[in-house]
């Protein structure tokens, strides 16, 4: 017979708390002294061991416990549940009564107060009952740092497809092929490991290629009021940019526009190398935010395979507005222009995921459109976006109204990576052109009423002479492609011929 353990052995062995307690209990109320050992013929110990073995066997075949809480409140966008202890961002399932279209509603934990969890539904919740049971989604193995993060489909089979915020196809092209899955959130990249921006990216738009040169891995903002041509410009870039893969996020735009963008602006050739994620204005704010995160994780997936990805997101403002809706609904106090502080934390968190990856890998060049309400460049989202992006292209309503497309306001726009990308000659020509444009604009009224007589300002004279050619240089039809080299040549010829 095996000799029973001494107290010392019990204390130092790696028994579970229950086993330790049972082993100690076997000594009865009067345990022997540690040094003397346990009587070899303790009948209790054998009995407890047998009982423990029985428990282990039952435990092995038992089904895992399904923790569940109860729904206590549903007000506005937010539901409240008690009885569960879950982290913010976890997913839950809420039971719906029999006969509902869905068996269960899905929701995400967006906050808590004491033991109450705030949930935001991502599906239809029509028919929810007070006291409905709320279940935590089973979590994945713990070795993965992204455990618990929601995973959505990614993969090469998604090219040419149009998906919703949950990765389900919106087109009628059948189920997705060759699909992998990736977490919606990603660990941040060490800024020192990122490859610097040092290679020019040809975007197919003359004014941008020549005067606002964009580099691979740069993140740019496209700032404009509504109807000034943001979507059309994004479409032109999607068609003509020299990128291997394009990921397009259509966030919070009108539903009608999604079809229009895909069919008319993007076109067949653009779509063939793109994945489109669309979450129009009528889907829940959580899904609008999820669509932006999903588009970003798709771009990350292709970048991590060494590809040069172009990401176009229309619009970053709608993403911020979705976060505002959620934050206000869970009781966060509004700060600047009704935007709660969490909005300004979410923007850089999303934008920082794009850009260059570690040296030698792929890149994500990103264009985010930013709505400037009433063409107000001081809008808090525009302000915050300007600070976190590597440059901004401002579209001007005045130019658009004059039929000048793309309506890029060259003076107000800047590409912060440009100086490191281009040579001195190119830089000098850009500087000259900007000077002439600005001189012309400032004196435009004088010139138009004939109050300016030539000979008083040499630069202005030159600007007046060149202006028609500058205007023609800046304009471009949206079905026309202007490759980088041709754009530089055109810029050079402005000054050599007739300058
Ligand atoms: N390059 C262009 N050439 C000709 N017309 C253009 C061009 N760009 C824009 N437009 C005109 O401007 C209109 C609005 O453009 P677009 O839909 O891109 O604006 P938007 O800024 O995306 O608007 P919203 O804020 O409503 O989304 C187009 O329907 C088109 O008529
Ligand atoms: Mg648009």
Automatic annotation (TrEMBL):
InterPro entries: AAA+_ATPase (IPR003593), ATPase_a/bsu_AS (IPR020003), ATPase_alpha/beta_chains (IPR050053), ATPase_F1/V1/A1_a/bsu_nucl-bd (IPR000194), ATPase_T3SS_FliI/YscN (IPR005714), FliI_clade1 (IPR020005), P-loop_NTPase (IPR027417), T3SS_ATPase_C (IPR040627). One of its GO terms (biological process) is bacterial-type flagellum assembly. Its EC number is 7.1.2.2. The keyword ATP-binding applies. CDD domains: ATP-synt_flagellum-secretory_path_III_C (cd18114), ATP-synt_flagellum-secretory_path_III_N (cd18117), ATPase_flagellum-secretory_path_III (cd01136). It catalyses: ATP + H2O + cellular proteinSide 1 = ADP + phosphate + cellular proteinSide 2. It comes from the Bacteria. GO terms for molecular function: ATP binding; ATP hydrolysis activity; protein-exporting ATPase activity; proton-transporting ATP synthase activity, rotational mechanism. Keywords: ATP synthesis, ATP-binding, Bacterial flagellum biogenesis, Bacterial flagellum protein export, Cytoplasm, Hydrogen ion transport, Ion transport, Nucleotide-binding, Protein transport, Translocase, Transport. GO terms for cellular component: cytoplasm; type III protein secretion system complex. Residues 216-399 form the AAA+ ATPase domain. The keyword Ion transport applies. Its main location: cytoplasm. It is found in: Cytoplasm. It is an enzyme of class 7 (translocase). PANTHER family: ATP SYNTHASE (PTHR15184), FLAGELLUM-SPECIFIC ATP SYNTHASE (PTHR15184:SF81). Belongs to the ATPase alpha/beta chains family. This is Flagellum-specific ATP synthase.
């Amino acid at each position: 017979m095996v000799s029973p353990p001494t107290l010392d052995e019990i204390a130092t062995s790696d028994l579970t708390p229950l086993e330790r307690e049972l082993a100690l209990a076997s000594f009865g109320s009067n345990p022997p002294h540690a040094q003397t050992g346990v009587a070899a013929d303790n009948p209790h110990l054998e009995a407890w061991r047998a009982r423990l073995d029985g428990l282990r066997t039952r435990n092995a075949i038992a089904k895992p416990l399904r923790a569940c809480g109860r729904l206590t409140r549903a007000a506005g966008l937010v539901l409240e549940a008690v009885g569960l202890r879950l982290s913010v961002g976890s997913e839950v399932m809420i039971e719906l009564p029999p006969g509902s279209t869905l068996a269960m509603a899905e929701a995400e934990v967006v906050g808590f107060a004491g033991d109450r969890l705030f949930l935001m539904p991502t599906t239809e919740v029509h028919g929810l009952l007070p006291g409905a049971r709320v279940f935590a989604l089973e979590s994945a193995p713990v070795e993965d740092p992204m455990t618990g993060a929601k995973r959505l489909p990614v993969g090469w089979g998604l090219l040419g497809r149009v998906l919703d915020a949950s990765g389900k196809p919106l087109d009628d092209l059948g189920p997705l092929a060759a699909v992998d899955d990736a977490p919606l959130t990603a660990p941040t990249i060490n800024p020192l490991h990122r490859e610097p921006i040092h290679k020019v990216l040809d975007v197919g738009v003359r004014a941008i290629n020549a005067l606002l040169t964009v580099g691979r891995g740069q993140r740019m903002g496209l700032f404009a009021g509504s109807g000034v041509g943001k979507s059309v410009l994004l479409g032109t870039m999607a068609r003509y940019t020299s990128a291997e893969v394009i990921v397009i996020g259509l966030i919070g735009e009108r539903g009608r526009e999604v079809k229009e963008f895909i069919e008319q602006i993007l076109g067949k050739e653009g779509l063939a190398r793109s994945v489109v994620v669309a979450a129009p204005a009528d889907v829940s704010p959580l899904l609008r935010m999820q669509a932006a995160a999903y588009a970003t994780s798709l771009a990350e997936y292709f970048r991590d395979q060494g590809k040069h990805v172009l990401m176009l997101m229309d619009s970053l403002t709608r993403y911020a507005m979705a976060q505002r809706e959620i934050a206000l609904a869970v009781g966060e106090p509004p700060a600047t222009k009704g935007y709660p502080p969490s909005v300004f934390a979410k923007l850089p968190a999303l934008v920082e995921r794009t850009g260059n990856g570690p040296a030698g890998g792929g890149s994500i060049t990103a264009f985010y459109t930013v709505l400037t309400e009433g063409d107000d460049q001081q809008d808090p989202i525009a302000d915050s976006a300007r600070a976190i992006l590597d440059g901004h292209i401002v579209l001007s309503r005045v130019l658009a109204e004059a039929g000048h497309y793309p309506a890029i306001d060259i003076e107000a726009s800047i590409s912060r990576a440009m100086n490191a990308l281009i040579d001195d000659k190119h830089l000098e020509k850009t500087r000259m052109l900007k000077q002439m444009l600005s001189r012309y604009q400032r004196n435009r009224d004088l010139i138009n009423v004939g109050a300016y007589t030539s000979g008083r300002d040499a630069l202005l004279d030159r600007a007046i002479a060149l202006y028609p050619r500058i205007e023609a240089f800046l304009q471009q039809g949206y079905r026309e492609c202007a490759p980088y080299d041709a754009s530089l040549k055109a810029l050079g010829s402005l000054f050599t011929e007739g300058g």
